[in-house]
């Protein structure tokens, strides 16, 4: 009889108590504090089981049925399931589920669609784009010729007129849309029209919102893009990793760009976990979560506005909001640190045309996938907004501020205590110490 041999926490404690301690402490951190990082959510126990499996041992360079190693029968089944499920979920023509991360997926997409030196038009990092959209600190800005479009100063929404003007002036090989801190819907049809006008490929980096597309809470970019890249670990709630969807005629180019161009052996435990996540994302429960995530983001954003934080673009259509703190006289860096002391994890974030350097920033970014996975709804969002308001304005260098942060931390404990992300057996947890 075959049995599953999976994570054995007692063995880890015996062999390596220091790392066992890290794992226990991280469970506690995730359970006992509020997770508002927009790019995080909670994976299911089934995803974690696949990640902690012996598939991690297997080398499988190549693709199902065409590997460079023997013994790939089982991992082939896992990858075929992951691909079939991704195709069904996103109604796509081709899927590659091997990228190790969103950055790896983007590297492969560039390699498939452009040559070094080609012009690439993408959203600038200070306006909500990603490092791989042309930053000089990444391959994308060093090996390609990036042209950045921005948001309009008045609306803080993508300036589509500027996108078209830049496309006509620079004739890019590749146009990219998709962002890491943009709270509005993106007009994929308009981007398609601009790309067609100048004969460019259109790539949508859907890393942040692909989970919401899977849950039918946001429109899909798949019908409009030549290539869609994404991550499986954000709102999608799968393992850390990347993925690529594309039109059938680009399939071979994408596959060759992932392996052997950009990567070696795929992480088959992660590929299996992606298959699990795609299956979960097709359920009515997941759709409920995805739609509630958006409703929660709106409620949280409105609550924060009532606390004196100005929402960039005036609100949100997706899972995140960016808040400008200048009217409160607090920097993003200080707000992040104060919230951390109060048990609230969020991140500082530049606002459009920010006079501060990125390490300081004038704003913060919040997201609702994690708290929604925990079962929280609009009422909790309003309470959390008020706690953030108290934390951000509490100066920890004064006795009153330090006391206020302690009070907020106690209330955070009450909220998260009622919505445990991983309802582990308390005794089991205590015994594992
Ligand atoms: N690091 C991710 C984020 O937080 O948005 C993007 O890659």
Secondary-structure map:
Layout lengths: L8 H7 L1 H16 L1 E2 L9 H7 L10 E2 L2 E2 L5 H18 L3 E3 L5 H12 L5 E5 L15 H5 L1 E5 L10 H11 L3 E4 L10 H11 L2 E5 L4 H5 L12 E5 L10 E5 L4 H12 L5 H14 L2 H23 L3 E2 L8 E5 L7 H10 L2 E2 L1 E3 L13 E5 L1 H5 L4 H15 L6 H20 L7 H6 L2
Parallel strand pairs: 1-13, 5-6, 5-7, 7-8, 8-9
Antiparallel strand pairs: 2-3, 4-10, 9-10, 11-12, 12-15, 14-15
Bound molecules: D-serine.
D-serine binds next to loops.
Question: How is this structure best described in words?
Answer:
This protein has 433 residues and is α/β, with parallel strands linked by helices. The protein has two domains: 54-281, Type I PLP-dependent aspartate aminotransferase-like (Major domain) (Aspartate Aminotransferase, domain 2); 285-424, Alpha-Beta Complex (Aspartate Aminotransferase, domain 1), CATH 3.90.1150. The chain has helices spanning 9-15, 17-32, 45-51, 73-90, 102-113, 139-143, 160-170, 188-198, 210-214, 251-262, 268-281, 284-306, 332-341, 369-373, 378-392, 399-418, 426-431, and strands spanning 34-35, 62-63, 66-67, 94-96, 119-123, 145-149, 174-177, 201-205, 227-231, 242-246, 310-311, 320-324, 344-345, 347-349, 363-367. The strands form four sheets. The chain has a seven-stranded mixed sheet with strand order 4-10-9-8-7-5-6, with helices on both faces. The chain has a four-stranded antiparallel sheet with strand order 11-12-15-14, covered by helices on one side. Strand 7 (174-177), helix 8 (188-198) and strand 8 (201-205) form a beta-alpha-beta unit.
């Amino acid at each position: 009889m075959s049995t599953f041999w999976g994570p054995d926490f007692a063995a880890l404690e015996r062999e390596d108590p220091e790392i066992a301690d890290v794992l226990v402490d991280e469970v506690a951190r995730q359970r006992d504090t509020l997770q508002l990082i927009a790019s995080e959510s909670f994976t299911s126990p089934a995803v974690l089981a696949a990640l902690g499996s012996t598939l991690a041992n297997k080398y499988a360079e190549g693709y199902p049925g065409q590997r460079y190693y023997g013994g790939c029968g089982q991992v082939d089944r896992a990858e075929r399931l992951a691909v079939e499920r991704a195709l069904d979920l996103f109604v796509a023509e081709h899927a590659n589920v091997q990228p190790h991360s969103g950055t790896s997926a983007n590297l492969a997409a560039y390699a498939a669609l452009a040559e070094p030196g080609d012009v690439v038009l993408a959203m600038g990092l200070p306006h909500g784009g990603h490092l791989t959209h042309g930053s000089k600190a990444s391959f994308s800005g060093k090996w390609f010729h990036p042209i950045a479009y921005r948001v309009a100063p008045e609306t803080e929404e993508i300036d589509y007129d500027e996108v078209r003007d830049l496309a006509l002036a620079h004739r890019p090989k590749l146009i990219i849309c998709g962002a890491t801190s943009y709270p509005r819907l993106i007009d994929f049809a308009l981007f398609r029209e601009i790309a067609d006008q100048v004969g460019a490929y259109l790539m949508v980096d859907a890393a942040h919102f692909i989970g919401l597309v899977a849950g039918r809470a946001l429109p899909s970019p798949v019908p409009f893009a030549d290539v869609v890249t994404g991550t499986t670990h954000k709102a999608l709630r799968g393992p850390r990793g990347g993925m690529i969807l594309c039109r059938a005629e680009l399939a071979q180019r994408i596959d060759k760009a992932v392996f052997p161009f950009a990567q070696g052996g795929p992480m088959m435990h992660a590929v299996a976990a992606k298959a699990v996540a795609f299956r979960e994302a097709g359920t009515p429960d997941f759709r409920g979560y995805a739609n509630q995530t958006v409703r929660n983001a709106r409620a949280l954003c409105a609550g924060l506005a009532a606390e004196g934080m100005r929402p960039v673009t005036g609100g949100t259509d997706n899972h995140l909001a960016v808040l400008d703190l200048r009217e409160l006289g607090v920097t993003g860096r200080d707000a992040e640190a104060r919230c951390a002391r109060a048990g609230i994890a969020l991140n500082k974030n530049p606002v459009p045309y920010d006079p501060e350097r990125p390490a300081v920033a004038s704003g913060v970014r919040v997201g609702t996938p994690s708290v929604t996975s925990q079962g929280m709804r609009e009422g909790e969002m309003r309470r959390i907004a008020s706690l953030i308001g108290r934390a951000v304005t509490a100066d920890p260098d004064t006795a009153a501020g330090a006391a206020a942060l302690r009070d907020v931390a106690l209330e955070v404990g009450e909220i998260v205590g009622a919505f445990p992300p991983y309802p582990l057996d308390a005794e089991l947890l205590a015994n594992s110490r």
